[in-house]
Please model this.
Amino acid sequence: MPVEDATTSPSSAERPPATGAPLAIQVEGLHKSFRIPTHRVDSLKERAVRPFSSRDYRELHALNGVSFEVSKGEFFGIVGRNGSGKSTLLKLLASIYRADRGTIRMAGRLAPFIELGVGFNHDLTARENVVLNGVMMGLTPKEMRQRLDSVIEFAELGDFAELKLKNYSSGMLVRLAFSVMMEADADVLLIDEVLAVGDASFQQKCADAFHQMKAEGKTIVLVTHEMSTVEAYCHRAMLIGDGRIQRIGDPGEVGRDYLRLNFEGGDASAKVTSGTDDLRLLGVWLEDSSGKRVTNVESGEEILLRAEVELLHESPGVQIGFTLTNEDGVGVFQFGTSTEEADGPIQAGQRVAVGVRVENLLTPGRYFVHCGVKRHPDPRAVVFHVERALDFLVFGAHASQGVVTLPHTIETSIEEPGG
Amino acid sequence: MSAEAPAATTELREVRGPSALGGGPRRFFDLLLLMSVTEFKRVYFGTVLGYLWSLIRPLMLFGVLLFVFTKIFRVGADLPYYPVLLLLGIVLFTFFQETTVNSVTSVVGQEGVVRKTQFPRLVIPLATVLTSVFNLGLNLIVVFVFILAWGVDPTWTWLLFPFALLLLFVFTAAVSMALSVLYVRFRDVAIIWAVMAQVLFYATPVLYPLGPGGFEDKTLERLLMINPLAPIFQQVRVWVIEPDAQTAVETAGGWIWLLPAATIFVAVCAFGVWIFRRDAPRIAEEL
Model:
């Protein structure tokens, strides 16, 4: 398992805690599997009728030996696709599930919530719920009553404190829940996808609160799909897949791995077979540097655009052209190739394969390849043209304006006014 | 690192996963009390008639049964204290029945809390019991007004009544614990228990008196005393309403015959605690 030093990505606002800082969370060899019954025994009758049928289950290994450490004061991100085991891990950390094997050690008090608004009773008023939630988090009712006003104030719900929660909007609920959590005095917080809550001004407030918690040295474990959140807040991140740690370290790199995992593996197939009596376009596809067909490519990686044309009749030669456009139909790039005259005429049934090696300067987004084929050396007419012969996605951690990222170097200097 | 953080929090401590009590005794009792009180308040203030509902139900049942058993079947017609005896019995048994029936779905009903937070699981059924205890407390005030109005003289044995209540609470809590956790895996527990509670109602001396004026067949009386609730109810009758009525020991035919009831009582309590402790860590996964 590659464990890298906690290096700050450029976008991280603050330095990570120094190496050698005391640990807040230590996880060793964590295993967790679930039994998925193929025939669920839900009633006593079924249990009585077939006493052994409960043995019909398959084991689902959600976590397979996960070990990692989080230092005190660290903001740690966990990313992974659905079903990768990240939520299971979070629930194990939060003492909601019990591990099959392995140990979890934690320093300090843990906020026992992994989702906002859990434990709210919708028949009670906001005030009553704040106290109830606070007690769930380990404060005494008295302590929580003292903090009631600041919680309500932070949530900007002063006018609705006596309103029952069933009459709250979902945004109000989340604000209230977030405010309670902020007030919980926990040393370790486990958070599952919460940052995208409320309106813009409340989001800013949340961001401020997170920065303050970072400054106070609270340890935060965040599970999210939002790579930008991970890069903006986390000191370190961990990518989980198939119940194992795929990568742990710099949030930027983990983020890129995550995106790669998300978009790759799609079956890249030639989606067009079209042509005329003379020619047939067998396919247009992309390959990555290892020669594997892909439909999604990462920004910056070299890609290979391939096309194959079959000739049905003898021809002196063919010319193949490509046009690349983005989703808005803006032409980005055009290139073409033709068979050499020296090769002589192409016989009926022979195939022409074209490969174009492209340095991928495209910004993340969706692109289309349009393909045209001409008979050569007769340049007069396009024999046929296939619109959107291929479409593919370019992914990357940094979304940006524009169509391409031109290679560039930046020099910045601050100069005194000329005197 | 915050400067005021106590040294103890910097030590790594093993996290053992969910349990029945998890999270320390203080948090447990804070949560238990707060949940019961808020739930009680919600029922009390949440509806127009509020608390009255919890009184109207046993009172209506009382009215119907009193009519049926004094005018039609004439079971209690010869007993001077039959009406208050019936009322007290109904209120106590309604407590047991409603609490246990409500607790069946309590853990499953709190699914969000169980699956999304580190929450001491035992709080959930016990809060159901405690809420009912508050309710019973209010109902008993009304019942005792009736008892005094009926002309029952207070005796020193009234002081023993809380002991009988305590036994009832413990038994109710144990049954509630077992039911709430069994229901997670076996959904027909709800139906089975609804029937069982009804059976227990008729196996407990609420409608009919035991001893003089009761059954001719003394074997049947002894058989009924196997039900752990029966000796409690019989003794309450002696302690609270009729000091010269037949005690639980006399009804059973000697101390030795109370052993089956006592054994069942202890077994049910042990089973409740054992199964809850065993299943509590896995509740979140089973839901």
